[in-house]
Specification:
Keywords: Kelch repeat, Repeat. The chain has about 250 residues and is an all-beta fold. It contains no helices and 24 strands. It is globular and about 45 Å long.
């Protein structure tokens, strides 16, 4: 990339990968870049209105949405056609002592998990059509860090200590089988009926984990399918044309 960053977020839209925000080692960043696999180059795009780290990112209706982050309740959308960021309605609950948000899209609605004061995670949904937030339920006994994704009408929270899922039709969290490894600082993506987990370190140590794990949504089973050629921590992955892009 044009600039080094970690604790950033990444997503793909219309065949292009976007890497947004994060830290450069000293400062929180508002800058953003995009990667076009045709040109095989990273290009700077307009910066966000707010710097942020450890925030949620997703796409809906041709726009990139960034949500929350470390002590940040602001929401923005990016339009690639105009190269402009637009402020959206803030998350309804302020982020005072919290630091980690994740976002995904299911049935034309953006879902986010935000930390609550009692140690659980609150599930909210944001309807971009009426630009309103709606509070759903809480995910108790939450993992410290997690990745958040959706398949059909089911939301998945893949955490460093446990994994859970929620069917939005019944709005109830249920436990699911945990990864074969205990790792943090990993990235996770969903491709087809599979969730892939990449990178990270072994919990409570500096031991790198290069194995790639895959969760079969249909049979509720984790398997090791490959290994990374690099050691990586606190990066982000995106699915692009059936392949992964990791940064």
């Amino acid at each position: 990339m044009n600039g080094g960053r970690f604790s950033n977020s990444a997503v793909s839209l219309n065949g292009v990968v976007y890497s947004v925000g994060g830290r450069d080692g000293i400062n929180e960043l508002s800058t953003a870049e995009c990667y076009d696999p045709v040109d095989k180059q990273w290009k700077d795009i307009a910066p966000m209105n707010n710097s942020r780290i450890d925030f949620g990112i997703c796409t809906y209706d041709g726009l990139v949405y960034v949500v929350g982050g470390n002590e940040n309740s602001k929401v923005e959308s990016y339009d690639p056609a105009t190269n402009k960021w637009r402020l959206c309605q803030n998350i309804p609950e302020p982020h005072v002592d919290t630091y980690y948000d994740r976002a995904t899209v299911a049935e034309n609605t953006i879902y986010i998990l935000t930390p609550a004061t009692n140690g659980s995670e609150v599930l909210h949904r944001f309807d971009p059509r009426d630009r309103m937030w709606y509070k759903l339920n809480e995910m108790p006994a939450t993992p410290v860090r997690y990745e958040f994704m959706s398949y059909d009408r089911v939301l998945f929270a893949i955490g460093d200590s446990e994994c859970k899922r929620l069917d939005i039709r019944v709005n109830k969290w249920e436990p699911m089988s945990h990864m074969l490894s205990n790792r943090n600082g990993f990235s996770a993506v969903i491709a087809g009926k599979y969730i892939y987990v990449l990178g990270g370190r072994k919990e409570y140590s500096l031991q790198w984990i290069t194995s790639v794990e895959r969760f079969n949504i249909c049979n509720n089973e984790w398997t090791i399918v490959d290994s990374l050629e690099m050691e990586c921590f606190d990066g982000r992955a995106a699915v692009l044309s059936g392949e992964f892009d990791f940064n």
